[in-house]
Amino acid sequence: MKLYIAGPDVFRPDAPAWAEGVRALCRDAGHEALIPLDGAETTADGIYRNNLRLIESAEAVLANLNPFRGAEPDSGTCVEVGYALALGKPVIGYLEKMKPLRERLDAGGPGIDGRYRDAEGRAVEDFGLPLNLMLAVPVRLVEGGITAALGALARREP
Predict the structure, then answer these.
(1) Which alpha helices (DSSP H) does the chain contain, by range?
(2) DSSP SS3 for 102
(3) What percentage of the chain's residues is helix, strand, coil (to nearest 5)?
């Protein structure tokens, strides 16, 4: 299968070496990795359109949904996941820990209204999911890294 590898890993200082490692893992599992670093585009619009093309050509998406620059997954990765879902492609998201969102955000409560609140007083959904329900419901989530996601993919194949 062609697998689009979504996530903020492209921003790592060792991104080219990381990409080669992921390509090898995918190849060893019998798949081809499509990585946002693939392509010669250098403009924002060009990179965006190239990534959409890669997602369109993929049969599934593996997405790093660990917190990035804050408490939530990378916003670009969320767009890629949404696009893949809209195209009907399976998405497997991986997280280092499958800790419920309210625990991860250290939400106090429940308050007088029965809802948990973050440090700024905003309600935190409490479905026991590790991410916002808009990601946690349609995406198959696994604990671990890319290897765990590849394992989950293998268990889905006939």
Answers:
(1) 15-28, 44-57, 75-86, 101-104, 133-136, 146-156
(2) helix
(3) 40, 15, 45
Give the pLDDT confidence of 83-142 residue by residue, as tens digits. Answer: 999 999 999 999 999 999 988 888 877 777 888 888 888 889 889 999 999 999 999 999
How far is 105 from 108, CA to CA, in rounded Å? 9
CA angle 70, 20, 28 (to 5 degrees): 110
Q: What one-character DSSP code corresponds to residue 11?
A: G
Its pTM stands at 0.93
Report whether 85 contacts 135 (CB < 8 A). no
136 burial level (CB within 10 Å; 0-12, 13-18, 19+): buried
Q: Give the number of other Cβ atoms within 10 Å of residue 26's Cβ.
A: 22
Phi-psi region of 59 (alpha: psi -120 to 50; beta: other; left: phi over 0): alpha
- Which residue in this structure is represented by tokens 């969320």? 78
79: phi > 0 → left, psi -120 to 50 → alpha, else beta; which?
Answer: alpha
